[in-house]
Write a structure and sequence with these properties.
By secondary structure, the protein is of the alpha/beta class. Helix content is about 35%, strand content about 20%. It is built from 8 helices and 11 strands. Strands 1, 2, 3, 4, 5, 6, 7, 8, 9, 10 and 11 form an 11-stranded mixed sheet that branches. Strand 4 (about 100-110) and strand 5 form a beta hairpin. Helix 3 (about 90-95) runs parallel beside helix 4 (about 120-125). The longest helix is centred in the N-terminal third of the chain and has 24 residues, at about 50-75.
Amino acid sequence: MLRPVVVGLDGSRESLAAADWAAREALLRGLPLRLVHAWQAWSPEESRLPELDAPRFWARRILRDAMDRISERYPQVYLSAEQIPRPAPEALISAGAEGELLVLGSQALSGFGGFLAGSVALATVAHVPRPVILVRADETAEAEHMPDADGRPSADGPYREVVVGVDAAHPCEEMLAFAFESAALRSTSLLAVHSSHLSSAYGHVPGTANGKAEAAHALASALRPWREKYPAVTVRALVESGRPAQLLLNAAADAGLLVVGRRIRPTRLGAQTGPVAHAVMHHVRCPVAIVPHE
């Protein structure tokens, strides 16, 4: 049985943009799309008092309106919807675990154009065992593609590049698999970014010529089996000295999708997203895929 692409809805512009992105991704992957909305009623029974039953009405309308929107824009996608009577993080974590991936909307930071990942998104990303994609309110089909010959936005041109952040000393197979598959589905190139600041793991001082050369070699070794598995994907490797999060922000400036990893490493404070994932979640412009791994 196919796992669906799951999208969380709350009626906001961000969640509607996420639903659109999720529908396009479902079509790319040949998967069904499942819309979910979390809402806790005061009572399981409908009230005779309109003011008490109004939240129930609006909760139902969120799903109904989203279904109408997706059905009209993407009639080819197999669509289902469910209202889950649980707190939002709990409902999204449960629904996301059953899907191929989970898509959420994130607010743009005023003046910066990045993400304002609220408490629900952060809690969900930190606990869902499947890839989670964060999508901005102004994300469109045209934004995923290169502009036309006249420089105008177009959904008909080639897809923009996929960017993936790689720790070559500890390559994450799940993350590389997701990044290569995403690039292959889009018939676009993949840019693998590694910070030579991490090259001390190979016995050299970070940022030196030897350290950078060792890091480049390790990155090439990590990518080799995936290049062989996806020979149609053009791969570029970028090894630079600098903070990993900043390198990824720069590399993803014109990307269609950024892929980063989240190590599954619960602490006394609960599951964490990690500093690099946390930084790009808040500041990158394109959709961000956070892939959990051991």
